[in-house]
């Protein structure tokens, strides 16, 4: 992504007197024109980058200018490295080069301590098992974001209805272990959030769009998923055989021992298809105690499942 590339270029310029635009373009797999746009962005940020013409020319920092390596502390660099390492666990090794450049800034005498800091916390977003189709969608959408082109796909919503969409992509969002695309939907002429797992036949369109400036506060994933007015109290009972599932999904303060090795859990959830799918996922380990209408609905769903296996 662009911010990674800009930071990588700055770190390269800190460590090399001159570098060719073509070499940078090949390194980051972009055009030379994109590199020159990046140089303009770096200049606008207050770091004077100069392009020297001629056979021995290239791109470098202005003569006499020195970027303060202490602009970021070792702890801050370690935090950036850890964050990049975590993201790379899900989106492939595209941040490897940037992580190497950050490591190169650390003096050799401090490298062991730096490595220790970057392994104190590891966040691995990757799923257990293979995730090929989703990785392909992520790669295509990242390309579309870089190129500023719209995408088209077939989309199945939460109710199972399929529709064709043309979307101007704005942001890829990892929320609750699932990837989403936030973009301007041509069908509804408004910004929508699309779950990648529900996309089919994803392709880049030839249509180029001009990105709007959308304030972060307007993004839907920053808002609460569950509003108190839309939720209801639910009382669950986990058997002794399923207590480990309760401990995996609920905070210890929500677990009330039942005296027989199991737990009673009191929580608030919105009543929708997600809730029933969530509860069914516990199988026979859970029983809904309250409210009664959810008990009835769970009984109907369980009977329907049982009928399929008769």
From TrEMBL:
The keyword NADP does not apply. The keyword Transcription regulation applies. Pfam families: HTH_11 (PF08279), WCX (PF25583), WYL (PF13280). Residues 2-57 form the HTH deoR-type domain. PROSITE patterns: HTH_DEOR_2 (PS51000), WYL (PS52050). Keywords: Transcription, Transcription regulation. InterPro entries: CBASS_pafABC_assoc_protein, DeoR_HTH, HTH_11, PafC-like, WCX_dom, WH-like_DNA-bd_sf, WH_DNA-bd_sf, WYL_dom. This is Transcriptional regulator.
């Amino acid at each position: 992504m662009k911010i990674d590339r800009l930071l990588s270029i700055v770190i390269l310029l800190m460590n090399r007197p001159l570098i060719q635009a073509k070499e940078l373009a090949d390194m980051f797999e972009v055009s030379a024109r994109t590199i020159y746009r990046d140089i303009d962005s770096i200049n606008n940020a207050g770091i004077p980058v100069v392009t020297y013409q001629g056979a021995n020319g290239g791109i470098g920092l202005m003569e006499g200018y020195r970027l303060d390596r202490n602009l970021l502390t070792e702890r801050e660099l370690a935090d950036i490295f850890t964050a990049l390492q975590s993201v790379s666990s899900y989106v492939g090794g595209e941040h490897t080069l940037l992580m190497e450049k950050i490591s190169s800034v650390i003096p050799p005498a401090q490298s062991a301590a730096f490595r220790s800091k970057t392994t104190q916390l590891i966040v691995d977003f990757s799923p257990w098992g293979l995730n090929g189709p989703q990785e392909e969608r992520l790669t295509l959408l990242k390309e579309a974001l870089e190129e500023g082109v719209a995408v088209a796909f077939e989309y199945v919503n939460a109710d199972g209805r399929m529709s064709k969409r043309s979307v101007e992509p704005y942001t890829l969002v990892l929320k609750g272990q699932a990837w989403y695309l936030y973009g301007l939907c041509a069908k509804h002429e408004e910004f929508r959030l699309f779950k990648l797992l529900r996309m089919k036949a994803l392709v880049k369109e030839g249509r180029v769009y001009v990105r709007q400036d959308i304030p972060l506060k307007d993004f839907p994933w920053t808002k609460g998923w569950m509003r108190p007015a839309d939720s209801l109290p639910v009382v669950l009972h986990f058997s002794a055989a399923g207590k480990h599932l309760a401990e995996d999904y609920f905070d210890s303060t929500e677990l009330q021992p039942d005296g027989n090795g199991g737990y009673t859990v009191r929580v608030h959830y919105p009543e929708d298809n997600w809730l029933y799918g969530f509860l069914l996922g516990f199988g026979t380990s859970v029983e809904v105690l309250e409210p009664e209408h959810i008990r009835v609905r769970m009984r109907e769903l369980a009977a329907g499942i049982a009928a399929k296996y008769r």
